[in-house]
Structures are given as C-alpha cells and as structure tokens.
Amino acid sequence: MSRSSKDYEIGRGRPPKAxxxxxxxxxxxxxxxxxxxxxxxxxxxxxxxTSVKITRDGESKRxxxxxxxxxxxxxxxxAGDRRARAVYLRCRELAxxxxxxxxxxxxxxxxxxRAFSAHDVGSSGDE
Length: 127
Known about the structure:
Helix content is 35%, strand content 14%. It is built from four helices and four strands, in the order αββααββα. It has helices spanning 40-48, 65-78, 82-94, 111-118; strands at 51-56, 59-64, 97-99, 102-104. It starts with 39 loop residues before the first helix and ends in a 9-residue tail after the last helix.
C-alpha cells in the first residue's frame, strides 16, 4: 500500500519527507549529557541540611543535621567536654551574623584582613 507523493498529506505527525530524520541518524547524536559533578562544598551543604529524626525530652522531632550536631556539641560542652565546647564556640565564631538585615563576615586575623577592615567598607567604590 504505497502512496504516491501527490497523495501524501502533510500535517500534524506527518512532516514533509525531505525534512524527516534520515535512516540511521539519531536526533541526538551527542547522546545524553552527563550529570554535573557535585562540588565538595555543595555536598557538605546538602548533607548538613538534610532532615534527621532526633528524640528530645522523649519527643521525636525532625531537624536539620546541622542543628542536631550543634545541639549535641552544646549538650556535651555543658556536661564538661572541653573539646566539644571549643568546637561549638568555634562554629559560633565562623557563622555569619545578621545585623540590620546585613551579613557580617569575620575574617581571620592577617595583614590582608587588617587592611580590608581599615578600608571604608561602606563606600560605593564608584569614585
């Protein structure tokens, strides 16, 4: 049942024969693109922000892994574990703090950071 080219109707689902895919040719010759590799920092962020189930005062609760870690460090620090207390305090030092809707970043003490903090950070730099 072959039709002549005069009888062939072009329309939805019936493209012109000249523009059809050629036999043996792929619509995607490069193949499926590979997934973007996940960076270390992105992986750490994902892990720390995953939800975990903890039991606090006999009640189950879902919190982020980061919150669970900090709570555990706090509990151990209060109980007298000096290392846990030091790690908890270091985390508090490194965490950006919000003040008036602006983020403040604490730099490590170095010649560069002293020069940076001496520079007027509030200037626009459009001079």
